Amino acid sequence: MTLEDFLGLMDILLGENGCPWDRAQTHESMRQYLLEESYEVIEAINKKDMASLREELGDLLLQVVFHSKLAEKAGEFTIHDVIKEIAHKLVSRHTHVFGEDSAVSAEEVVAVWEGNKAKERHKTPKEAMEAVPKALPALTRAAKVILRSKQSAPEARELIKEIFIKLQFIELEFDKCEKVMLNEEFGKIMLLIVKLAGVLDINAEFSLTNATEEFINTSSPDNSALGGSI
Fold it and tell me: What number is the average pLDDT over the span 117-122?
């Protein structure tokens, strides 16, 4: 089946004599499925399960096509517009391949990509930070916001000192602190940890996911919720 065949199949499902459920959907009602399918793709990758990955990528492709067809019905854009726009973006951001920039390492490629993105959008660092979607998982969003802040990366040891200072503050003030203040300080510590992860070139989201899995696998049934081998 070609992409055009698949698009034709969706036209039938969304047509007058198609599926009542499909025809009742909106971009808003489909949001949860897009999120779920994205996570299922990631789960298949984490498990290195290629059969599942093939299936889940198909489910994710369905979401892209479904949203594109809903937009087409509303006269807003088509799947071909989506493809055209991403193709243009790939060329305009890869100026080290299609232009005159130079990039040898993966780090240099990221710098070129972000530089080209900034030129296209003409946003201040604050506007760029505000543009990071709030729907992202908190650790991932924090990492992207920090990256777009354009702040010079602090030394890892300085960040570790800051984290310990805040932990010591919580320890000393624990009995006197109100819940609101504890919540605020805890958030600041988490943000510092995400900063530290960036300096150490660690993906905080995946690191926490792996640690959680290890906790599940190494915790015995009789351990308390905070027990186990952390």
Answer: 75
